[in-house]
Design goal:
This protein is 51% helix and 0% strand. The longest helix is centred in the middle third of the chain and has 34 residues. It is an all-alpha fold and 168 residues long. It is built from seven helices and no strands.
Length: 168
Amino acid sequence: MSKRRLPSAVRNLRGSTKNHPERENKREPKPKKAVGIYPRYLPKEGKELWDDLIDSMPDGVYFRSDRPVMIQACSLWAQFKQSIRARKLAIEIGALEGALGDKADDDPKVLKLRAQLAPISDVRWGTRDQSSLIRCLGELGASPAARQKVEVPKEPDDEGKPKFEMVG
């Protein structure tokens, strides 16, 4: 298996490009725009994770190019939360139906719970979804191991260029 390529910023900090300037990718795109606000179509739970991710990282970590991964992570998180809610509602409905017997079909509490369950009853959560969520969060630096790899730009120097500090 080949060795994973390091980002240019890390190679520059380590001095790799000083020893081998021909290895520097001078045409590598540099992100400019911030990630922005969450898309309107994200469910409420996804919007909460979006805000948590943005608030938990310093400025200059997430950019517009990170948006697809953030959208995927937030959508998976919303699916996870909805599946938990659906499971809890189904358990509560089952307990009430067991206690009420034949009268459960007319019980207002059971009808209310069924109405809450109906829109999310199709939500499924499996190991593949869990793996995808963990991978997305790792790419965003949202785990202790991944956070160690994140480099945060320091304050700009006199020329207005961000200073970087080697981590690790």
